[in-house]
Design brief:
209 residues; mainly alpha; Tetracycline Repressor, domain 2; elongated; homodimer
Chain lengths: 209, 209
């Protein structure tokens, strides 16, 4: 499981609760202010813990805490998108998923947590890159399954390589979020997703009844 | 011109040279260590200037300096890509451009400067978002011109909206760079660009002679 990969020394239920409180506080700060502006002091203040407590659970400090937040936010994104991702087997389902992604990213605006974290956290080094690469793979695999199901249902181009197409879709979302973070506009996210779905889905597929 | 948008108080040639030295030092630090890890102290040390000098040229500090670096790096990217962007009017030219983008991003690895900066700088607020939105628009416009030229040459699908397709291509590159920064791999950049070009270019176009 992702959430425990970077768990540090958590021996008791109370310890686990404190660790969780620190991670939730960091996630909330990052959502409100962004990764760059969030300091460990902010996280201590918000979680009601001291620096020494924080370093007990996160001996490698900021990098390790950001990884834990990434895992938390990734879990939330997969929980949110799960119902849509699991049912990706028709043109209608892809349209719903596309609308959900655009709406979610637009509503969360410049602090779309997972987009920010995937972009920031991987830069810390090989350990962080392993975690973000896992997230990208997990996300891509879920989309690949949807592409294969839609191909099997006769509503997606069977000539497309499902895994490579899934990689392009993940990249489109990540790029759209990146432009959203930079410019405040979700137009590129929409254009890129529509472009992918236009290529993926068969225009002349029969309507489902 | 972009380079002068955030120029601060530069009254003399010597002042302009000092300002430029600070910006180049910041750009070099960011290329080597990333935006997150670069401090104003690092920039002062590398450029041989003092903090008070730095704040003379960049009264708004870190944000303003990052904007200046973004403009510098954007100018370099457009200088590098200019010859390829200007000639985008055939399938062969798109293939060359695609290879150049992938090679450049792969070689620069996790510190691809413009990708990093577009992702980071826009988060500082409306002023920074204006600069990054301008860069995205300029880049998208160059690609749109190429799409239109390729459509006119009969080698790209004439049914595609050139501007919206250009938005999708820009988003694919930005997403590919974002995943490269997070995971260290350029595979997603390649997959996303190939997916865009597969949709854009006509497979049965006559070979150029």
């Amino acid at each position: 499981m992702y959430r425990q990969v970077q768990s540090g020394g958590v021996a008791t239920a109370k310890g686990a609760a404190t660790r969780r409180r620190i991670v939730e506080a960091a996630a909330a700060e990052i959502r409100e202010r962004g990764t760059l502006a969030t300091t460990l002091d902010d996280v201590c203040r918000r979680s009601g813990t001291g620096k020494s407590q924080l370093f007990h659970y996160f001996p490698r400090g900021r990098e390790q805490l950001l990884l834990a937040v990434t895992e938390l936010e990734a879990g939330r994104v997969f929980d949110d998108q799960g119902p849509y991702l699991d049912g990706l087997d028709s043109r209608a389902a892809w349209a719903d998923w596309r609308d959900t992604v655009v709406r979610t990213c637009r509503d969360r605006g410049p602090h779309c947590p997972l987009g920010v974290l995937i972009a920031d956290v991987g830069r810390y080094g090989p350990a962080a890159q392993t975690v973000t690469a896992q997230l990208v793979r997990r996300w891509q695999a879920a989309i690949r399954v949807g592409i294969e199901a839609t191909q099997a249902a006769g509503e997606a181009d069977p000539a497309l390589d499902a895994d490579r197409t899934a990689a392009a879709v993940v990249t489109a979302v990540q790029g759209g979020v990146s432009v959203l973070l930079s410019t405040g506009s979700a137009d590129h996210l929409e254009a890129a997703l529509d472009f992918c779905l236009d290529r993926l889905l068969l225009a002349d597929a029969p309507e489902r009844t």
